[in-house]
Amino acid sequence: DVKVTQSSRYLVKRTGEKVFLECVQDMDHENMFWYRQDPGLGLRLIYFSYDVKMKEKGDIPEGYSVSREKKERFSLILESASTNQTSMYLCASSPSGNVDEKLFFGSGTQLSVL
Amino acid sequence: AQSVTQLDSHVSVSEGTPVLLRCNYSSSYSPSLFWYVQHPNKGLQLLLKYTSAATLVKGINGFEAEFKKSETSFHLTKPSAHMSDAAEYFCVVSDGNTSGTYKYIFGTGTRLKVLA
Questions:
Q1: Does A33 sit within 8 Å of B90, measured CB to CB?
Q2: pLDDT, tens digit, for every residue of B52-88?
Q3: For the segment A43-101, what is each residue's pLDDT rounded down to a tens digit?
Q4: What residues make up the domain containing A96?
């Protein structure tokens, strides 16, 4: 069974802390994505990666960076957490090559920045 | 650049009546379009997808959607609502970038309420 695993379900951090959100997929997918979900705003794309060590900015990359050293793992980094980064963070993956592939989602990390 | 507009943030229907959730899209290329559903405290699940084969697409749980290029719409319908359909629904467009990669852009969501 396909699986996208996010390391934490709930996370509480303080303003200014460096925060790492980890995502691992076991499906050998090429593409991985980070979204944040906020009420009334839907899911907004932060960053995505289509290959190891390759990344592209999404629609809201400010304040975030990513790392993809291995194919199965895609990390989202908040360099200096701020209260406006309190949100639900969702990781997703998809197979390579085709624009019509479905996304496989993790269960999400609810991050609170105090 | 691609974008998705879900025209209603909330829709309420009575059980047994039809459901219509509206979605309009903008795309520079030939897009793929999807509907995902998110039940309370659950993960996102694919309902259906359009990939330029048939314009009327059937999905799970009795849902279907029709791709209308002239109207740039991809509305989701169901003939008869069930209480278990209460959830948030997202319209998604997948489109190519100049770099040759694909982005999945989500709408802001429509929360469906089903009244007994």
A1: no
A2: 778 899 999 999 999 998 999 999 999 999 999 999 9
A3: 999 999 988 888 999 999 999 999 999 999 999 999 999 999 999 999 999 987 676 78
A4: 4-101
The residues spanned by each domain of chain B are 3-115
Q: Is residue A114 part of a domain?
A: no
DSSP string, chain B: --EEEES-SEEEEETTS-EEE-EEEE-SS--EEEEEEE-TTS-EEEEEEE-SS-SEEE-GGG-EEEEEGGGTEEEEEESS--GGG-EEEEEEEEEE-TTS-EEEEE---EEEEEE-
Give the total residue count for chain A. Answer: 114
If one counts the domains in chain A, the total is 1
8 Å CB contact of B104 and A33: yes
Q: Which two tokens stand for residue B20?
A: 């219509």
- Where residue A22 sits, what CATH number does that domain have? 2.60.40.10
Residue A1 has pLDDT above 70, yes or no: no
Q: Is residue A112 a part of any domain in this protein?
A: no
Which chain B positions have a beta carbon within 8 Å of A43's beta carbon? 90, 106
The CA distance from A89 to A23, in Å, is: 10
Chain A residue numbers with beta carbons less than 8 Å from the beta carbon of B90 are 42-43
CATH number, domain B3-115: 2.60.40.10
- Rounded Cα distance, B47 and B59, in Å: 5
Question: Which of B102, B108, B110, B111 is the best substitution to test chain A (most A C-beta atoms within 10 A)?
Answer: B102
